[in-house]
Design a protein that fits this description.
Elements: E1 2-4, E2 11-13, E3 56-62, E4 69-72, E5 76-80, E6 87-88, E7 99-104, E8 107-112, E9 119-121, E10 124-125, E11 131-132, E12 138-141, E13 144-150
Parallel strand pairs: 5-6
Antiparallel strand pairs: 1-2, 3-4, 3-13, 5-7, 7-8, 8-11, 9-10, 9-12, 12-13
Length: 154
């Protein structure tokens, strides 16, 4: 079974979000699979940081994954459209390898790793350097806006 693009008529694989020919979004009502996301919230709605490595999280503020929380649990966190990314953002506006978050003594640093649409930190484009993240920073990766939050208990 395939999904037909209403714009160009191209036949796409079932589960595709975008037409592989013209790039337009496909009708999500026909999507056969569902996405399971890790829930990091406790019953009170707070993020559960049980491990010292889980002192930070990215929360999707806008985009089709709004509300999704990603714990930052390692020294290197990759963000992109590639399925092997630690944080997988499935949208054509996100490069396969978009940004990397790297742990340092001061916290996490963010670096754009050659994305086409760029990465924005608090509304300003990150160029060829790393930027230190602070609690409450807003990242824009493609059309996703992500909030960087740090636990006050670690």
């Amino acid at each position: 079974m395939t999904q037909i693009c209403e714009a160009c008529g191209h036949s796409n694989e079932v589960g595709s979000r975008f037409c592989s020919s013209c790039g337009r979004p496909l009708n999500l009502a026909e999507e056969a699979s569902t996405e399971v996301l890790e829930n990091l919230a406790t019953d009170s709605g707070n993020i559960n940081f049980e491990s010292p490595l889980m002192g930070a999280a990215l929360i999707v503020a806008s985009g089709h994954q709004a509300g999704t929380r990603y714990a930052i649990t390692s020294d290197l966190v990759t963000v992109g459209r590639h399925p092997d990314s630690a944080i997988f953002l499935d949208d054509i506006t996100v490069s396969r390898h978009h940004v990397e978050l790297t742990a340092s003594a001061m916290g996490y640093c963010i670096k754009d790793v050659g994305s086409l649409n760029g990465t924005y930190l608090n509304g300003e484009r990150i160029e060829d350097s790393e930027a230190l993240l602070t609690n409450g920073d807003e990242l824009q990766v493609g059309k996703f806006k992500l909030l960087y939050l740090v636990s006050s208990s670690t």
